[in-house]
Amino acid sequence: MEIGLDIVEVRRIRRVIQRTPGFLARVFTKDEIAYCRGHKDPWPHYAVRFAAKEAVWKALGRERLALKDISVERGSRGKPSVLIQGRRAARLKLSLSHGEDYAVAVALQED
Q: What confidence tens digit (pLDDT) does each residue in 6-28 have?
């Protein structure tokens, strides 16, 4: 079993996205961008997805895996799930939380 944890400042992600427009396309999938833009305040949603990508990357220990290869989806009940290069990662559990200032994610890779 492997675990990954990441915490991100929401304002840091907002600044990076606003200053570096190409960041969105390099890090997030089209579906993730659409989901975040669908909220009145998209920044915590971008931040928590970024934290999730980092947490998953740490849990998997895959240096050659790009952040865009990792995507976060919400199920019908709001439960997050992970796709790796478009395929559901069934043995990977994800927990997300965000507030006004911070976003945090924990990823657990089961054996």
A: 999 999 999 999 999 899 999 99
Residues 107, 55 contacting (CB under 8 angstroms): yes
- Helices 43-60 and 30-37, interaxial angle, to 10°? 150
Residue 14's contacts (CB-CB under 8 Å, 6 or more residues apart) are: 43, 46, 47
Using one digit for the tens of pLDDT, what is the confidence trace for 63-94?
A: 788 999 999 998 778 899 999 999 999 899 99
Using only the alpha carbons of the chain, give its radius of gyration.
Answer: 13
Give the domains, in start order, of the chain with CATH numbers. Answer: 2-109 (3.90.470.20)
